[in-house]
Amino acid sequence: MLKIKKLLYLLPILLMFPLTALSNGQFPDVTPDDWYYATVTEMTANGYLNGYPDGSFQPDTAITAAEYVSVIARVCGMEKSATQNSHWAGGLLQTALNSGWYDWDEIPPTAETYDQPIARQLAVKVIMKAFAPDARGDYNTESAKIADFGTLNGRYYEPVLAAYAKGIATGDENGNFNPNVPLTRAEACALITRAMNQLSYSAQPYEEPQKPTPVTIATEKGVSKNGHLQVNGTQLCNERGEAIVLRGMSSHGIQWFPQFLTEDCIKATADSGANLFRIAMYTDENGYIANPSVKNTLINAADTAISLDMYVIIDWHILHDGNPNTYKEQAKAFFAEMAERYRGNPAVLYEICNEPNGGVTWEGDVKPYAEELIEVIRAIDDKAVILVGSPTWSQDLHKVAKSPIAADNLLYTCHFYAGTHTDWLRGRIADALNQNIPVFISEWGTSDASGSGGVYLEESEKWMEFLNANRISWANWSYCDKNESSAAVQSGANCSDGLSPDELTESGKFVFSHFND
Q1: Quick one: 141 exposed, middle or buried, by C-beta within 10 A (0-12, 13-18, 19+)?
Q2: pLDDT in tens, 484-495
Q3: Tens digit of pLDDT for each residue in 419-435?
Q4: CA distances from 95 to 99, 118, 183, 415 (A)
Q5: Is-above-0.85 flag for pTM?
Q6: What is the pLDDT of residue 37?
Q7: For the chain, which residues make up each domain, given as ranges?
Q8: Which of 42, 355, 459, 503 is catalytic?
C-alpha cells in the first residue's frame, strides 16, 4: 500500500486540456501551511497529480463529475472503454458506467454533464460502488447521524448510510451532510482518502498508458484498391490490414423498387462517394420465397455494383418472417448458390438474416441458424465477410456478446432509426466493441423506426459522429422514392445523369453528404 500521510490521499485530477506536471512536486497555490500540502507533493512525485496549464491546483474549485470519476477509475486500475463521445474522460467514465458505479441518468454517457460539479450524494455513491459495493449501514442508526437526512434523495440512502457506517462520510459542524452541494477538489481528496483508509484500499502508482499504435486507415475506397476484406478485432480492414469504412445506400425491397437498381442509379451513389451498395431481397411479402425471380434482380444489381468498383451486401431480408429458421433450408440453398457464383470475389459480403424478431432468442434461434449458414458459405468461400443479425430487429448485441459465434471474418449487424434509437443504443454498441464484438450498421434511417414520422437530423448527426469515431461501416435505408421520410430520392427523380441535390429528399441530402466522411 502506498504511504498515506495524515488523513488525506490526493490522487490524479486529470483535466480535459493538456496538463502541466511540476518537476518539483509543488503548485503555486499549494503551500506548506495547507492541510493537503504533504500529500500533493508526494502524489505529484509519484506521477499521480497534474494541474491546470497555468501550474495551479485550485483546491477550492468544485470538482467536476469527469474529474472525480476519472480519479477513482485510475485508483482502481481501470482501462478506457469505447465511448459514444469525444470527451477527454469519456473512456474511463464509460468503464465506470459499465461497472455500475452510477446510473445512466446520473452522468449520461453523452457527456453533457461531465464538466458539471458533482453533488456529494452522487460522489459518495460512486466511491462506495467502486471501493465497497457490498457495504451496508443500518437505517435507524446511520440516518440519525444526518441532521438533513430529509433532503437526501432516496436512491442514495444505501451508499450514504454505508459510508456513514464505515466512517467515510461525516457531517459538517451542524451535522448536515448537504447532499446536493458540490464537492471542492480538496474535499474530494478528503473523501477518497477516508474511503481508502477506512476500507484498507491499496492503489498502485499510476503511469500514463502508452498510446496505442495508430491505426492505418485505407486512403482509397474501391474494391480494386482494397481487395478482400477481413475483420481484425472489431475493425473491418482491407487485404493489407488497413482500417476501412464502407458507406452507402441500401435498396428498399427489390420486388417493389427495381428501378433504383439500374446501372445509372447505382452509379449515382458511387459518384457521390459511396463505396457500398446493399441489396435488400425480402424473403416474405412477395419476395424470394413466393417470387424466386427476384433473385435475378439481385444478381443484376450485384454485378452492376461490382462493375462500379463497389462493395455489395447480398441481404437475406427477413422481416415479417421474424424467425430465420422459418426458411432456413431455402436460405442455405440460396447462399450456397451465391457463394458459388461469387467465389473468391472480394466485393461481396453476405448478410444472412436481416432483422430477427417476434420472440426469437439468440441462443435458441439465431445463433444456431447463423452457424449453419456460415458453414455453408465457408465450405465454398473461406474468405467472404459474413454479417449476422440478432434478435429485436438486430439490436441485441449484448446477448451476442455473452455467446459470440466461433468463426472468423464475421461482423454483427445493428440497425437504428434516429427518431427512435438514441444514446442507449450507442451505449450498447460501445459495450459490444469493448467486449471485442465487431459491429456493422447494415441498415439505419434518419426517420423513426416506422421508416417515416419525420427526419431527425440532429440525432442522425450524433450517430454519424459516433460511427466515424469508431470506424463503423453503414448502409442507409433506403434508396427509393417511396412516400416516407426515410426515402432518399424525390418522386420523379431521374438517375440517368446522376442525382442533383434537388432530386434528393431531406434525408437523402444528409446521407449523401456523409459518404465522404
Answers
A1: exposed
A2: 999 999 998 999
A3: 999 999 998 999 899 89
A4: 6, 18, 22, 24
A5: no
A6: 74
A7: 37-198, 223-512
A8: 355
Question: Is 90 exceeded by the pLDDT of residue 305?
Answer: yes
Give CA torsion, residues 203, 98, 133, 143, to 10 deg. Answer: 120
- For 181-205, b/e burial (b = at least 16 CB within 10 A) is ebbbbbbbbbbbbbbbebbebebee
Question: Nearest CA to 263 among 299, 305, 293?
Answer: 305
Please give the average per-residue pLDDT across 126-150, as a whole number.
Answer: 96
Note if 443 is an active site residue.
Answer: yes
CB 417 within 8 A of CB 486: yes
Task: Please calculate the CA angle 317-261-411 and round it to the nearest 5 degrees.
Answer: 40
Distance CA 443, CA 285 (A): 19
CB 177 within 8 A of CB 120: yes
The region of weakest confidence among 57-61, 236-240, 361-365, 476-480 is: 57-61
Q: Which three cell numbers stand for residue 460?
A: 442522425
How far is residue 514's CA from residue 472's CA, in Å, rounded to a whole number? 13
Query: Minimal CA–CA distance to 169: which of 97, 140, 178?
Result: 178
pLDDT bracket for residue 19 (50, 70, 90): very low
Catalytic residue among 42, 106, 142, 443: 443
- Is-catalytic flag, 372? no
How confident is the model at residue 20, as a pLDDT?
41
If 0-12 CB within 10 Å is exposed, 13-18 middle and 19+ buried, where does residue 95 land?
Answer: buried
CATH architecture of 223-512: Alpha-Beta Barrel (3.20)
Quickly count: other Cβ atoms within 10 Å of residue 30's Cβ. Answer: 24
Beta bridge partners of 95: none
- Give the rounded distance of the alpha carbon of 63 from its chain centre: 27
pLDDT reading at 10 higher than 50:
no
| Residue pointed to by grid coordinates 447463423 | 370
What is the number of H-type helices and E-type strands within the chain?
A: 17, 10
CB 263 within 8 A of CB 302: no
